[in-house]
Amino acid sequence: MKRIEKIYCYLDENTQKFSMEELLQDNGFETGEISEQLNILRNNVSKELHELLRLDKIIKIKGRPVKFLHKTCVEKILNIEIKEKSIEVGSIKELLFKRESEDPFQNLIGAEKSLKNQVEQAKAAIIYPPVGLHTLIFGQTGVGKTLFAKMMYNYGKYIKKFTDKSPFIIFNCADYYNNPQLLLAHIFGYIKGAFTGADHEKEGLVEKAHGGILFLDEIHRLPPEGQEMIFYFMDTGTYNKLGETERKRKASILIIGATTEDPSSHMLKTFMRRIPIIISIPPLQERTVEEKIDIIKYLFVNEAHRVNKSIKISTEVVKALIGSVSYGNIGQLKSNIQLTCAKGFLNNINNGKEYIELDFKMLSSNIKSGLFEFGRDYKDFKEVSSILEAPLLISPDGYKVMIEDAEELPFNLYKLIEDKISLLKEEGMDDNDINKFIITDLNIKFKIFYNKFNKNKEHKERISKIIDKEILEFAEQMKDLAETDLTRKYSDRFVYALSFHLSAFFKRMKEKKYDTNKYTYHSIQDNDEEYKVALKITAIMSQTFQVEVPEVEITYIAILLKSVEEETQEQVGIIVAAHGSNTASSMLSAVRGLLGDVSSVGAVDMPLDVSPKEILEVMIEKVKSINKGKGVLLLVDMGSLFNFEATIVEKTGVKVKTIDMVSTPLLLEAVRKSSILGMELEDIFNSLREFRGYNNELNGEKSFSDKVIITVCTSGKGTAVKLKEIVENVLLNLTQENIDVIPVEVRELDKKIKTLQKKYDILAVVGVKKPKDNIPFIPLEKLIDGNGEKILREIIVGNQFMVLPEKESVVIKDLCEDNLKQFLTYLNPHKIIGILLNFVDELEKELHIAFDNSMKIRIILHVGYALERIVANDGLKCEADKEPISTELVRSVDSTCEIFKKAVNISLTEDEKYYICKMLSSAET
Questions:
Q1: How far apart are CA 775 and CA 766, in angstroms?
Q2: At 428, phi and psi to the nearest 5?
Q3: Cis? peptide before 396, omega within 30° of 0
Q4: Above 70 in pLDDT, residue 449?
Q5: Strand pairing report for 168-172 and 213-217
Q6: What gap in Å lies between CA 538 and CA 543, rounded to an integer?
Q7: pLDDT of residue 28
Q8: CA distance 7 to 12
Q9: What is the rounded CA–CA span in Å between residue 655 and residue 700?
Q10: Which end of the chain has a smaller Cβ tally under 10 Å, C or N?
């Protein structure tokens, strides 16, 4: 049994022997007594007791002498629930009285100054009858929006608006940003049978939050459909679960949203009209100097409590810390302070002082530079000097938990340092090397932790341009699952590697280009622990994304779980070579920023004034140094560099393959397949020749093929983009060849064609204006009525491209889905469109009719809106006498409508069916 466990068990065994009367007389166990009873050194007992207190396992009774009790035993004896963390009391009697006797906002730094107006707004929002005023909290990352919302909740308990049982539910809207239907299910819940896999009824967040607060973080990520769902609930207080047709359920909740973005730019006006109070939290830079110092004191008190030592901080350190904060606000300040305290603690172990001393020379370079940033504002600089005439001396006794911190480090920083020092000293390492090693290790740990919680902007923005948010979130959840099941740690590299693979996998599935026999992977046994976890991940993946996952994906993910943890020694080397002074280096830097410091990858920058002979010599040496036994892949920016391949092979004896038109996504994919999957050179080469990126575009880069189609329209950028998407989908339906689509404005069509003809072979122009040049032209109306797809097929055949078998028109699907997106609130257009297309097909068979495209579109949109009306319990009603309709038509429509009952458990009313029949009969005449 570990030392800390022995002490914890001793307190457990002996605390439960006390009666209530004995506890209220402040009986407990002293450090010396425990040391004597367990034969453990006193200072070690003191250290472990402090750790148990931090873990919220015990209670500390302050006084002379200090005593300790087992927390759970105290709760049982006194028959109370202690919600506070790390309890330190003057007397056990304090636990029997409510601790909500003071206004929680009194503890908020700046409540009487820079945040005075915000606090008054918050109180007004809570007090307003009957349930309060819905509120939006606006502010930069790290200003404390979540903390402010929790204080509003605590204030509600303080004024008796809420009870201890009133819930405070947090929901991050970014989690379901791209899936409105999942969003609806999560917020409002669903009934059994609402969709495939819904085998039981599920409680939604609205139901859970009844009588309390629903806090919607990153509310700007709510799609329009989600905003409409929420504001309808705000208006009526009623809702229905997914799968129900009537809004009979009620809930009384106060909604508080938080956003880092300008609400007027990212939220619907109809939604904002329902938010009467908007609270703007200022960034740290706009707070008063006195408040900045108070915040620093508060954060240092927390660290002093953790280490159970006083901390002495020079005025230069305080100034540097204030100036070191750029975008992260209080969150970044907290991270900087923790890292600084860790260095101070490390030094303190060696010098043996009673307190930790922090001076300017021990700060990291990025924090040191903060002193000069802060010094630019002479007024603030002078004010800090006047407030802090002497170094700050922070005592651990002033510690107070203002509110539970969700962004607290998941490890005891100082115990971690002590344990590492002990281990490294046993290895014979000297103090100087130990310090360097530990500081490097801590820097990495802080970076990983705060990147995860504060969502480092640069990192997240870079990867969000490549990977869909929903995929990234899913990969993070699978990382947690793998760590739990395999009892090992995975870095962010695993998250990004899995994200890249899933993104490429979904793209291939969408384009129907997935070939399970194409790539050869290392073998893995199906009884391996990684294989079993991979089975679980693919099952969740199938359910989450509603996709059939091929069996080969289980093997891939199993390899990923194994190889990210245990990197293979042999792997394909990769060299990116590009013209320019740092083009290749920049690409490699971006990849390392996303995947970590990957090995066997190098960059060769080729300045324009350096001769090809010199570049060749550099590349030969690079290939020699980077080869790990499996060959080297060259990714270059010009086809002329292919000439280097044969010479490099001859001079080095290393197997080399070359791919031109290098881009950052191409390099990412190459590195992923080499360093993570461990694929062979030939397999990587063949797969990358068909790689077209994770999305269609990245940072404005586009890899064009020789053959293109131009789209042209007059009604704005959005329409041009939509027309481009439609044509691209038509091409995917017709051929597997890569034909790029370029949108062009109508007024510059002929000028643009002349420019593009110098670089590309233009197969056709699609849109509203015929070009002057003799290029095949497909009018927009022909694309819509279906003839345009036939013309495109003939053009593709004429260019000797492989053509796929004929399929259903994708133009109908695209146009209808785009229209439904604008009008459907409760139904997911992406899910419902397939059912509607099936409905039209069955209707044609029942009536022995072939509808033209325009009629199909009319039917799909009319019936789609009808289904939405039924879900909203607002179906059309026929007030006048119904006109006579063919019995055969009525029977056919009635029979075909059963599709909706089976697929989504929605039954159209007789009146809605009547209007469908009426539309069809009028079309026949």
A1: 10
A2: 85, 15
A3: no
A4: no
A5: parallel
A6: 9
A7: 94
A8: 9
A9: 34
A10: C
